Amino acid sequence: MTLALVCTSHSPLLEFNDPPPEVRTEVDRAFAQARQFIEDYEPDLVVSFAPDHYNGFFYKLMPPFCIGLEASGVGDFGSSAGPLDVPSALAEQMAQSVLDQGVDIAVSLEMEVDHGAVQPLEILLGGIATKPVIPIFVNSVAAPFAPMKRIRLLGEAVGTFLKNFDGNVLLLGSGGLSHDPPVPRLEAATGEQRKMLLGCNHPTAAARSVRQQRVIDTAKAFTRGEAGIMDLAPEWDRQLLDILASGELEQLDAWTAKEMAATAGNSAHEVRTWVAAHNALKAAAGQYTVTSEYYRPIPEYIAGFAVTTAVSVPKTAGLTETAVAAGTVRA
Ligand SMILES: O=C(O)CCc1cccc(O)c1O
Ligand SMILES: [Fe+2]
């Protein structure tokens, strides 16, 4: 049994707001490299840790974590709609195992996933149903948040379960790093917005379109330095990437939700998916090596944008040649 990991920022703005061409080229190269990494690895199963942005999970009932036993894309921001290929029996066994290991997790037989889960599947795997995928929702936008230690333990429980899987498993994490896009928040919501956050009515196409335009307008203003959202936090991002690469994930237990949001933005919580995915890899394999890393703060995407790959093999000296050739920012 071997495992591999790809973690990537997502941004619907990839389709709606271009950075300078050389930056776009760089991002495309990082994606191409991750795609090649996956193609070479030939996964039999994909386990995806991803957030949701009030398209599938709402305050009417907001679990910290949820495994989809069946799932489909909602199609926000032009992302793919329709069913994922979820191996339901295996997903249920995973849920049972995670519960048995002491991590309370919800299940959904009708999980709806948005660009947070869908975009990496599209970019890295060519679609939402090209491989069997177990989608794991990790709440990253709706306070209150699980403590970081619980995120680590979620990853550990999933990784421990995967030890017994006979085949190649690709772990995915989606989102982050530092960023503060205009996702509605309960504390600032009034009237209709509050109803939307509660999930009383599923968002209409018109409501989605208004929200989409607001994100695009904000990104354009942000790039000009005029948006009222928090700056990206490259130093925080750097620190996180270094901890993830070190494998010493317990260091993150001390990170509080409050500090994370204050330093790196309200959506920085999406890095929870990265932490869970890395610790799943560590639990299943004992140790891992980050084999490539791309990072750049990209205001046009409203994201401290990173793409990393890792494998379940002991550390060798530094990064591999492919990583260096791809121009990562790591020394
Ligand atoms: O759904 C939304 O309104 C937020 C969209 C969004 C924008 C930038 C980075 C993200 O990670 C992201 O999710
Ligand atoms: Fe997001």
Explained architecture:
α2 (88-100) crosses α4 and α4 (148-162) crosses α9. The chain has helices at 21-41, 88-100, 115-125, 148-162, 191-198, 205-223, 234-246, 257-264, 271-285, 321-325, and strands at residues 3-8, 45-50, 65-68, 71-74, 81-83, 106-108, 111-113, 133-138, 169-174, 289-298, 303-311. The two termini are 31 Å apart. The chain has one domain: LigB-like (Protocatechuate 4,5-dioxygenase, Chain B, 3-Layer(aba) Sandwich). Mean pLDDT is 94; it is low at 321-331. With 331 residues, the protein is an alpha/beta fold. The chain has an eight-stranded mixed beta sheet with strand order 6-3-8-2-9-1-11-10, with helices on both faces. Strands 5-4-7 form a three-stranded mixed beta sheet.
CATH homologous superfamily annotation = LigB-like
Low-confidence stretches: 321-331
* Percent in strands: 15-25%
CATH third-level topology: Protocatechuate 4,5-dioxygenase, Chain B
Domain Extradiol ring-cleavage dioxygenase class III enzyme subunit B: 6-305
Subunit structure: Homotetramer.
EC number: 1.13.11.16
Active site: 115, 179
